[in-house]
Amino acid sequence: MKKFIALGAILLSVFVLTACSQKQNDRDLNTDLNPELNQNNDQNDQVDAQTQKIVYTDPTYGFSLTFPQAWKDYVANKSTRDWTGGGEITGEKMVPSVAFGLPDQKKLFTISMFTEIQWNEIQSLCLPGMPRKALGKNSKYIFVLGSSSAAPANKEIAARMKEIISIGETLSASGLTAVGERPKIAGWQTYTNKQYGFQIQYPAKYKTAVDTYGWPNSVVNFIEKDGGQAYRAVISVWDSNKMSDIYKSMRSMINKIGDKYVVLSYYADDESIDEWQDVECTLEEIK
Q1: How far is CA 125 from CA 74, 87, 88, 139, in A?
Q2: Are β-strands 218-224 and 206-209 bridged in parallel, bridged antiparallel, or unpaired?
Q3: Of 37, 215, 252, 277, which is most buried with the most CB atoms under 10 A?
């Protein structure tokens, strides 16, 4: 009888150990398939006792960000991306990034870490969607803020998206210094819009004017000085990436700046397309 009891106890122990091992394997598999479940292993979060703000610290890339309490459930995911769009550069193409978001929309903005050579070369390629907001640099990286162009999933997300610029400005890293402004093109003029936080360079043969009649949401028009006052381009600002059909006959470049979409639209013929593509490359975000 005792032998049967002992055998039963041994079999029960084996069953329990096997079940526990299976559960652990399931958890490991679940974590592998869902990397977000393991997202906090390579970061240190602290809460400021006075402000109750959350401080994210990334030991891999050596930077920190401060989030308001409304971001307490934020998620962070790391990845690398080839920003060259097939263009040739002399150095490494892959750029590491950390994407930040919330449970309802997991990618609202990114902090990307470029080397100075990467930043200068990739910027010169003038790629659509390329982040242009350099937050600062140290001896290792240029830290660049990029915002998602996706529409907000709900009103709460829309409110949080308005805080992205101010969150980016909290970035701290050892030896952080400012990144110099984009060099000015000789003989070109600069249009600056402080209301929407951007500036753009353009050839001196154009003058600027504000004409909202027939140009929905426009903030500035570019007119040829010696071309019968012909309108060549317009910059408009929108709350979403869906703009008026009136611009469909023009080539357009969309830039997400803060919570607005800044759109450069222009008439591109064989003679002017290269010129306006150069203009596209000079559009940059300012404080």
Answers
A1: 33, 7, 9, 24
A2: antiparallel
A3: 215
Output the average pLDDT for the chain.
81
Report whether 245 contacts 269 (CB < 8 A).
no
d(CA 78, CA 59): 13
Report, in angstroms and rounded to the nearest whole number, the Rg of the chain calculated over CA atoms.
26
- Identify the pLDDT of residue 31: 32
Tokens of 247: 């611009």
Q: The pTM is what?
A: 0.68
Q: Which parts of the chain register pLDDT below 70? A: 1-44, 48-49, 86-87, 127-129, 227-229, 270
219: amino acid identity, one letter: V
Q: Which residue has the tokens 């974590």?
A: 31
pLDDT for residue 227? 65
How far apart CA 197 and CA 191 sit, in angstroms, is: 11
99, β-bridge pairs: 77, 110
Say how far apart CA 272 and CA 266 lie, in whole Å.
10
- The tokens for 276 are 């306006």
How would you classify the pairing of strands 94-102 and 105-114? antiparallel
pLDDT of residue 15: 42
Q: Which residues pair with 54 in a beta bridge?
A: 47, 67
* Rounded distance between C-alpha atoms, residue 270 and residue 226, angstroms: 19
